[in-house]
Amino acid sequence: MFQNLKLGVKLNLILLSVFLIIVLINGLLLSNVLQKNAEQEVKDKALVLIETMTSVREYTSKQVNQGTIQKLSPELEIDGQFIKTSVPGYSAREVFTNLQKRDQYSDFFYKEATLNPTYIRDKADRFETEIVERFRSQPDLQEQVGFRKISAGDLFYIARPLQIKSESCLVCHSTPDRAPASQIKTYGDTGGFGWELNEIVGAQMISVPASKVFAEARRLQLIVIGILAAGFIVAAVILNLFLKFSIITPLTKMSKWSRDVSTGASDTDFEHKPNDEIGVLAASVNRLKVSLEMAMNMLKQNPENP
């Protein structure tokens, strides 16, 4: 069946097959590359968020906790109420909550997963505990990135160690008797104590639904396929024009000329100026025409006797 098709149809079928093979190779070879690129884009945005939260924690610890609030209320309380804004983790969570109201950060989640937290909401689950323990056992490890499965779907996460670097943190986290009474009243005396300076007590974790990463990878893949498709269309148009004007049209004219010659209706040579394969063929059929004319003349001059 393929042999009976016209040259233009054959060419387009071959081009289409090549395009499909390229798309398949793109799917096999570029999918991982594009996903890694998408992960890096999400990771870069998550790193900016973690750096922002770290800056908020440092500001709260050095400027708020050790500065203004300590001068106004050394017991970290006002009217018997614990001053939550003196807690770096609280300030970071509040700032992040405001960031989540922006569309570009609405899918991101922030948690200070802690082994022994003051507030039960910060308690590390089993997966997060493994991450924290890895940070504790490998002090040089400064970052962990990967995927985790939860009931709602996979999450892409980035984690950094949460280390006690300021003495001011130990006011609330060393022993219950040193903690402000308002803190004990608000959070109790069972969690968040026994911390030590330079100890890794948790991990700052930014997570985002994995579907966002995969969607970004698919978007990049569609862009690549779109570029390939556009290139394929341009190449197909150029090749079809070349095929039409350089091969099909000359062959069609040669076929018509040959029919005319076979009926004796043509006394001209076939003209094809380009010195390509079609030109060589044109020269050959012209010589064939001359040979046929010579043979016919010889027959006319020496007819056979019946």
From TrEMBL:
All residue ranges annotated as the HAMP domain in the record:
245-297
Q: Which Gene3D superfamilies match?
A: 6.10.340.10
Keyword annotations of the record: Membrane, Transmembrane, Transmembrane helix
Return the GO cellular component terms, semicolon-separated: membrane
Q: Enumerate the InterPro entries for this protein.
A: HAMP_dom (IPR003660), Tll0287-like_dom (IPR021796)
In the record, biological process GO terms are:
signal transduction
Q: Which Pfam families does UniProt cross-reference here? A: HAMP, Tll0287-like
List membrane-spanning regions.
12-34, 222-243
What is the protein named?
HAMP domain-containing protein
